[in-house]
Design goal:
The complex is a heterodimer of chains A (about 220) and B (about 350). Chain A has about 220 residues and is mainly α. Helix content of chain A is about 80%, strand content about 0%. Chain B has about 350 residues and is an alpha+beta fold. Classes of the chains: A mainly alpha (about 220), B alpha+beta (about 350).
Chain lengths: ~220, ~350
Amino acid sequence: MDISPIIISMKTASAAIALTFLLGLFVARWVVRLKSEKAKMVLDGILTLPLVLPPTVIGFLLLLVFGVNRPIGRVLLEFLGVKIVFSWSATVIAAVVISFPLMYRSARSAFEQVDQNLVMAAKTLGMSERRIFWRIIMPLALPGVAGGGILAFARGLGEFGATAMIAGNIANETRTLPLAIYAEVAAGNMQMAAYYVIIVMLISFLVVASTNYFAMKERKYAK
Amino acid sequence: MRLLVDIKKRLKGFSLNVAFTIDDEYLGILGASGSGKSMTLKCIAGVETPDEGRIELNGKVLFDSAKRINLKPQERNIGYLFQNYALFPHMTVEENIGIGLRLPQKEKKQKVKEMIEAFRLQGLETKYPNQISGGQQQRVALARCIVYKPEVLMLDEPFSALDTHLRDQLQLEVLELLKLYQGGVLMVSHSRDEIYRLCKKLVIIDQGKSILFGDTKEIFKQPRLQAAARIIGCKNISGCEIISSHSVRAVDWGFILETGRPVPETTKYLGIQAHDFCLLDVASGDPMKEQNNVIKCRIKRIVEGELEYSVYFSNKEMEQDNGNSDLVYKVRKELWDNRRNKEELYLKIPEQAILFLA
């Protein structure tokens, strides 16, 4: 059995969740603090788009941005010697873009659900904005934020459409588990595909179960 | 301590327009629910921003729309006890009290320990807010405000979240604990009783406007304005027609009252507190001929309270009783139960009980 898809998938999903998590948190906090409701609405729409568009459409759009004959892709290639499309980094980019809305939306609603009275109280106690974020808002929003992170990780792990478009299906390089399953089925190796399916299911189950465990431990103050 | 507030802010449905000044006394802000009391406190604390006006504390300008000054809440040094206490649920009692202090660990610990002792919270240091009682939560919240040594302390409905039987005891307790704190106290409440007991000065807010400001006892005795009379709990208010310098007609009630003192020209309403009627318990004769300001009453219904009855009545001699003319008389139970004349009810309105309202 070729284990390279497993390794590539784990690497991709881990790198993607690290980026998505930080980016999602940062953007969510920024949007929550915006004053204008209109700007919030528009931004929220744009940021959620990757969740509702077909992944192939996202893949197509990513090709428009990173293709070697496109402005950004060309700059990266000519000045930095980096070719994004059909490389491992493309699998990460695809996973980040696709999973970002899940992280962003979960974090945003978790932040918004923090009792504003607590934030006000913290201000009157002289706590700085930064301290309020790390000592009050983050701990209280943590269950929601962590839940978003898990969802985003699972989505990144399962990413297929956009990855196929921008990263292709190169064995030992960009062939992640979902792509490997597809390739094996296409080649008639149902047995092999089934192994991969079982592995994906196992990883996903472990991830979800572990969050539930942490959520239970975390809530010692809530009864 | 001196706090000067004069602010305006447009809100949904009404606009806030509040002005008052306090020195070292305890000031109460009294108004119906939703009249803008909490918003006033939030503007002073700086967590909400008024549209225009000025807030000044001990000579320091906290907010001035004309000069574009608006200090952050963190720079205002104002203590704010929230209605639901706003304790941080993920922190222990100790952590809650110490969170605002910016001191080296050792000093901070010492300070928190002092507060825990002063507020009788020993043994609860490592408990979370949801593991302690409402009264204890209130003490933690108060300790958290006071440890920070604010220049003024604002209490938002401090007792409304507590059971009635706890309230009286806690009022005394809080009053005692507030002695640990040297500075002004601003207290918002919709409970007249609370304000009367705890606050020397009073601001009455009606639909976002501060309509009356002064000595609490004075205002309760002579509210001067119809809206203020309602807010301090005067149940009987009638439109008024001035007949002469010493007599008025209560339009809604259909009788004429001798006032015994000059009627202010601005009088548009009359008020009579439900406790201020005198029961004329005569077995025979017609008291209306012998004394003035006596009403022959038609009893509508009687509601039994814990210590007293509320007797709803109207003027029996009024021909058209449209239902809007009911008055209420509150009377001690034994006085009512032992009255001799149970056929007819005569009530006298003492001259000094008549409130002239603009």
